[in-house]
Amino acid sequence: MSSPNNGVFLFVFFVFLSFRKVPESSPQSREPWKRLVSVVTTIPFFSSQALLEFEERQGAVVSKKMSRREIQRFPTKNFCSATNSGNTQCQICFCEYADKDKLRMLPCFHDYHVQCIDRWLKDNSTCPICRANLADGDSLAPPTL
């Protein structure tokens, strides 16, 4: 016995599969939505036209890595508990900052241990908290008044 919820579950499952990481050299990494469309269109109540329109609205999902040079353009500071009233914990490793820990400051004003955020940015180009696109420096510039 099949219910409409089974189709929704399958759709969500295939969307999840389409976002898994694949090697950049793989042809699959360039066209994740086409893989999804080819699988999901076998489900009778999804039209391929509707899925292609969805892809156009959403855009392709591509994870851009950042180079060492791009990462190092973000400033660093040493943590000082006496003068810091903000965040006292790295949101990547969840360890409390200790005095003199070296933190990297992102343009979105989030800070992390240098080792933690550098490792993150080697595979991602967004802030782990707010998902600001760090690869596009212009989008993070403060607004002009």
TrEMBL record:
GO terms for cellular component: nucleus. Keywords: Metal-binding, Signal, Zinc, Zinc-finger. GO terms for biological process: positive regulation of DNA-templated transcription; protein ubiquitination; ubiquitin-dependent protein catabolic process. It holds the Pfam family zf-RING_2. The keyword Zinc-finger applies. CDD domains: RING-H2_RNF38-like. GO terms for molecular function: ubiquitin protein ligase activity; zinc ion binding. Residues 1-25 form the signal peptide. Residues 90-131 form the RING-type domain. This is RING-type domain-containing protein. It comes from Poecilia mexicana.
